[in-house]
Write a structure and sequence with these properties.
Elements lengths: L1 H29 L2 H18 L6 E4 L3 E2 L8 E8 L7 E7 L8 E7 L7 E3 L2 H6 L1 E8 L5 E11 L2 E11 L10 E2 L10 E7 L10 E7 L6 E7 L7 E8 L5 E4 L3 E2 L5 E8 L3 H6 L2 E9 L10 E7 L3 H9 L10 E4 L10 E7 L6 E7 L10 E2 L10 E8 L5 E7 L10 E7 L10 E2 L10 H4 L1 E7 L6 E6 H4 L8 E4 L5 E7 L6 E4 L2 E4 L8 E5 L4 E5 L3 E3 L4 E10 L5 E11 L3 H5 L10 E2 L12 E3 L9 E2 L8 E6 L9 E9 L1
Antiparallel strand pairs: 1-33, 2-32, 3-4, 4-5, 5-6, 7-8, 8-9, 9-10, 11-12, 12-13, 13-14, 15-17, 16-17, 17-18, 18-19, 20-21, 21-22, 22-23, 24-25, 25-26, 26-27, 28-29, 30-31, 31-32, 34-43, 35-37, 36-37, 37-42, 38-40, 38-41, 38-43, 39-42
């Protein structure tokens, strides 16, 4: 009977929600701001009341585009947070921005908590091209950037690993340390960086895990620096495939006593064996002397890939949910799970690609039973690119790309979950990206030419696109956590049809924050408007204008927030008697359907889960679609209304 009563209550609440939504739509059509915000507040109160007020909450901030440097693909993403400045976030990716026929890596730095970003490319990388970017911070706040730079030695192309340093949070970079090229070692590949943040004698030591050795010699090793990247020792061999099996390194960890954990995975590289293989084995090795020697290998898990035929069929069908290397994190807190190692990986043992999870309390000697990160995901959906990080309080955060919102499996979104009990249970997963991404969009399909192949009597001309080379957005995505414990996932987002770097601030809160009484207010003078990259569709004569709202006041602003167009004629044109009657345009996507004066854009969903805009914060971009010719010079006189506290 109690269960029946609860169900009746839920049905009544849903009925009220449906009636409220109908009322909201009607008031939006009438363009009465007071009615609009009243309806939105009513819906918000009802939804909040249906939650358990004491339950932990995953609060997602506005989606912010990190890369605003051109309509070209950005893939293979990494992120890092300054351990002494919570507002300094650093990102990097491979970009298709290099003129000509190559790719290059760039960095993106924020000093306001991830709202605005400054991009940088070094002269060596701009001239030669590069790949496999990594960023990290030392314990004193020095930023480091590592990339594989293209060079040609004796008419043979090679990759040279270069390391850059920055004393201004990643906005500018030093002359690089060049690791050079040694014939016996071959080119370094798939470098993975970690810096010792512990209180041990090796605090500040830089470790770079690398793959090296001329084919078919697969070796995983470490180079290390004790002087801030000015000189390096190594590589020191950590594991070898002994020319029988391929191996590659994953992201290394440093525990609280300075012990270095280096994970790696094996795989069959000979074609006949690869066609029969259905899994890869994940291993770890440990060094307790600063990377000078390593333990024997410790088996962690198997990553099931499925059959070779099934994998090739997926590729030919244009599937983008590729499997990538496992990702690792350790607990840096002072709590009972300090130094616990967490591992996530993409796996096909249950059919479609899913995110799996395990942990070790024995430095990788033994592991917990493996389990799904999110068992509630639909069976037909895929989860891939899982990344894990642990914040200062020991909260485990996991982000991944997920196709559950696309039954046709042609789109994905970034998702996030967290565990407050060391991975025993997870909070209900929540989408981070506010819009779905279409990886086979026109920007990702754009071809670039590769080098001329002279290995045969014919001159071979090869091409690639971002989608054909990086259908999953690269070999890895990024996630980091700042000094205050907030999470910052960074992913390759393709909502426009072109992979771009996006991020959002994600907080795991014990409960919904309480706010004192809010009152409606005209907040026009408390905000400024900023713009993303504006584009024009010549065939449709439609401009798309990404518009964001920034809080320039010292007062926190609250949603619902709406922007209303009150004038469409520039006051200066009236003053100087130069109003052009042909200077006409129409807004195509206002929330209330109006096309000129009276058009309302609702920015409530652009403020994130908590519907709040703190001082200095930036909203997500709402894209305005405006129909007009290329000679039209539009003007919008707008008023912004929202809420403040008394």
């Amino acid at each position: 009977m109690r269960a029946q009563g609860q169900m009746v209550t839920v049905y009544k609440a849903l009925a009220r929600f449906i009636r409220m939504r109908a009322f909201l739509e009607a008031t939006m059509q009438r363009n009465v701001f007071g009615s609009v915000v009243t309806a939105l507040v009513s819906v918000s109160i009802m939804v909040t009341a249906m939650r358990t007020s004491a339950a932990p909450l995953i609060a997602v901030g506005p989606n912010i585009q990190v890369s605003n440097d051109g309509d070209a693909a950005h893939v293979e993403v990494m992120a890092a947070a300054n351990p002494v400045n919570p507002l300094n976030i650093l990102g990097t990716s491979i970009t298709f921005l290099k003129p000509g026929s190559d790719i290059m890596t760039k960095t993106y730095a924020s000093i306001d908590g991830g709202y605005t970003w400054t991009d940088a490319v070094t002269p060596q990388i701009f001239a030669r091209g590069s790949a496999d970017p990594q960023v990290a911070f030392g314990p004193n706040g020095t930023a480091y950037y590592v990339s594989l730079v293209n060079v040609t030695l004796k008419n043979v192309p090679h990759d040279q690993m270069m390391l850059y340093r920055s004393s201004d949070g990643g906005r500018s970079w030093s002359i690089p340390f060049n690791f050079g090229y040694r014939t016996k070692l071959g080119s370094f590949d798939h470098e993975q960086v970690v810096i010792d943040q512990s209180a041990s004698r090796n605090r500040g030591r830089i470790y770079i895990g690398i793959l090296y050795g001329p084919y078919p010699d697969y070796n995983v090793g470490v180079v290390h620096s004790a002087d801030g990247g000015r000189s390096f020792q190594g590589p020191v061999l950590a594991a070898s495939g002994h020319k029988k099996i391929g191996i590659n390194d994953a992201n290394p960890l440093v525990l609280s006593d300075g012990a270095l954990i280096l994970p790696y995975q094996d795989f069959e590289f000979e074609t006949k064996k690869a066609k029969k293989s259905t899994y890869s084995t994940i291993w770890t090795v440990e060094s307790d002397d600063g990377g000078r020697t390593f333990s024997s290998s410790r088996r962690a898990e198997r990553q099931y890939t499925g059959s070779y035929e099934a994998m090739m069929a997926r590729s030919r069908a244009g599937r983008f949910d590729e499997q990538t290397f496992a990702d690792f994190a350790d607990d840096p807190s002072t709590g009972p799970r300090r130094d616990r190692i967490y591992m996530v990986w993409s796996d096909r043992r249950s059919g479609n690609t899913k995110a799996w999870f395990a942990y070790s309390d024995t430095r990788g000697r033994s592991w917990s039973a493996s389990k799904f990160v999110d068992p509630d995901t639909p069976r037909w959906a895929s989860q891939y690119q899982p990344e894990v990080v642990v914040n200062r309080d020991g909260v485990v955060g996991i982000a991944w790309l997920d196709t559950r919102d696309s039954y046709r499996q042609d789109r994905y979104r970034e998702y996030f979950t967290a565990s407050l009990d060391g991975g025993r249970t997870f909070l209900r997963s929540t989408p981070v990206s506010s819009m779905a991404s279409f990886p086979q969009g026109p920007g990702n399909a754009r071809l670039i030419p590769l080098e001329n192949d002279r290995a045969t009597p014919l001159l071979g001309l090869r091409f690639m696109s971002a989608f054909t080379r990086y259908p999953a957005g690269g070999d890895y995505m990024g996630i980091t956590t700042d000094l205050n414990g907030a999470f910052h996932p960074m992913w390759a987002d393709s909502r426009t049809g072109t992979f771009q770097l996006f991020t959002a601030k994600v907080q795991v809160l014990p409960k919904l924050p309480s706010v004192s009484r809010k009152i409606p207010a005209d907040i026009t003078k408390k905000v400024a408007v900023t713009f993303g990259t504006i584009s024009f569709n010549e065939a449709e004569k439609v401009y798309t204008i990404p518009v964001q709202i920034r809080n320039i006041s010292k007062q926190t602003l609250y949603g619902p927030v709406a922007l209303t167009v009150e004038k469409t004629i520039d006051p200066y044109d009236i003053q100087y008697d130069r109003v052009d009657p042909k200077n006409s345009f129409s807004i195509l996507n206002a929330t209330n359907g109006k096309q000129a004066v009276g058009a309302v854009f609702d920015y409530s969903r652009a403020l994130g889960t908590l519907s709040v805009l703190e001082p200095g914060a930036l909203s997500e971009a709402i894209v305005w679609r405006v129909h007009m010719g290329p000679t039209t010079q539009p003007y919008f006189g707008v008023r912004v209304r929202g809420y403040v506290t008394q």
